[in-house]
Design goal:
Largest sheet: 5 strands, antiparallel
Structural class: mainly beta
Oligomer: single chain
Distance between the termini: 61 Å
Order of helices and strands: EEEEEEEEEEEHE
Shape: globular
Strand content: 35-45%
Helix content: under 10%
Number of strands: 12
Amino acid sequence: VLADEYVPFQWTYEASSAKSWGKVENLFDGTHTKIWHSDYKEADGKVLEKSPLPHTVTVTFPEAMDIAGFRYYPRTWGGTSGKVKEFSVYGSTDGSSFTIIGKGTFTYTPGMADITPKEYKLPKAGTYKAIKIASHACKTSFHSRTSATCTTSGKKAYYTCSSCGGYFEDNIEKKPVPDFNTWVVIPATGH
């Protein structure tokens, strides 16, 4: 289902959290002037507490539908927050039990200029009664550097994520390591 091909008024929506002015229904109202926003607490213009990741949106259909992907329109105003980057997609054939059916990453041009709609196609289309999209929240573990000796290879320091199974060079920008088994090796120094 893509944005031009649905009847959203018959769907039901649920979010992990939402501000009163940023309801989840805003994602499906056909305009791009309102947003869904996860809940947060603020005082004197400063954010004091945010809802924990992952943020989720679940859409339940009146009948099972063929789903091939979705289209997402990034936030167009009010700051750089609120742009989905990494996410997982879960499908349910009965509306209550979900299994992962895809993972993706949206990229943006730095700054507010990039408001281009983002489209995600599932690796394999399927028929689902409900879809859940979850922002990715890496739960990383640090792995220390192991020095190489003259006869034994060592390993670079790295991070792993227990949520997505990814390998990362760092814990801040989460730079993925595409070929971990090659990248991690520190060659033996030799004699």
